[in-house]
Write a structure and sequence with these properties.
Blueprint (H helix, E strand, L loop, with lengths): L12 H14 L4 E2 L1 H7 L7 H14 L7 E2 H13 L2 H12 L6 E3 H14 L10 H12 L6 E3 H10 L1 H6 L1 H4 L2 H8 L4
Antiparallel strand pairs: 1-2, 3-4
Helix pairs in contact: 1-4, 3-5, 3-6, 5-8, 6-7
C-alpha cells in the first residue's frame, strides 16, 4: 500500500563513512553530546520544534542514558535511520514516542509528538486537522482494543496498514531524506 522503500533516497556507504569521519573529527573524546549532535545535523537554535525533535531522537539513541552518544551508539543510530528496514524504524519510532517507557503510547505522548511534527511539517501539508484532531484520528485508526493506549503491535500494524497514519509519522519513519538534506550543512 505504497510503503515500498525508495532506494533512490538511501545514503551510500561513502556518505555514511563521511558521517563517521565527521564524528571522529568533531568528537575526539569519543562522546557526542546533544549540542554537538544539533550542530552536526544543522538544527538552528532558533527552531524550538526542530530542537525538541532532535533532542527526542538523541535521547532514543543514548541507550546507556549518559547524555552522550559514544561511537557505537552513533553507528547504530546511523545504521537504523539510514539502512534499517521499515519494521525496525517503526519500533524505533514507537520507542522514541513512548516517553515514560511503559511500552504503551497514551494520548499525552501521541499529542506531544504530533504537536512537534505539526509545527515542523504537518501545518504545511494537505492535512487539514489540528494536532488534537490528528491525535483523535490516530487513536480511532490504531487503538484496536479501545483501551486508550496504543501498544507496539497496534502501532506497527496501524502504521503499516493505514497510509494516512504512515504519512503523519513519515518524518520519523523515513528520516533518510532529512539526514541527506542536512549532510550539506556538516562542517
Amino acid at each position: 500500500m505504497g510503503q515500498e522503500e525508495s532506494h533512490g533516497e538511501e545514503m551510500g556507504l561513502a556518505q555514511i563513512q563521511e558521517l563517521c569521519i565527521i564524528f571522529m573529527k568533531e568528537c575526539p573524546s569519543g562522546a557526542l553530546h546533544l549540542h554537538e549532535f544539533k550542530r552536526i545535523f544543522g538544527v538552528p537554535s532558533s527552531s524550538a520544534e526542530e530542537s525538541l525533535y532532535i533532542e527526542t531522537i538523541f535521547r532514543s539513541f543514548d541507550t546507556n542514558h549518559d547524555n552522550a552518544l559514544d561511537f557505537l551508539e552513533y553507528v547504530a543510530a546511523l545504521h537504523l535511520i539510514l539502512r534499517g528496514n521499515l519494521e525496525d524504524r517503526l519500533k524505533w519510532s514507537f520507542k522514541m514516542y513512548d516517553k515514560d517507557g511503559n511500552g504503551k503510547l497514551d494520548r499525552q505522548e501521541v499529542k506531544r509528538i504530533v504537536r512537534i511534527l505539526y509545527k515542523i511539517k504537518l501545518q504545511t501539508s494537505d492535512i487539514n486537522l489540528t494536532p488534537s484532531e490528528i491525535c483523535d484520528r490516530i487513536f480511532e485508526l490504531v487503538d484496536q482494543n479501545h483501551d486508550g493506549q496504543i501498544s507496539l503491535s497496534e502501532f506497527m500494524e496501524g502504521a503499516q496498514k493505514d497510509e494516512w497514519v504512515m504519512n503523519v509519522f513519515k518524518l520519523d519513519v523515513n528520516p533518510t531524506t532529512w539526514v541527506v538534506q542536512n549532510c550539506g550543512k556538516l562542517t
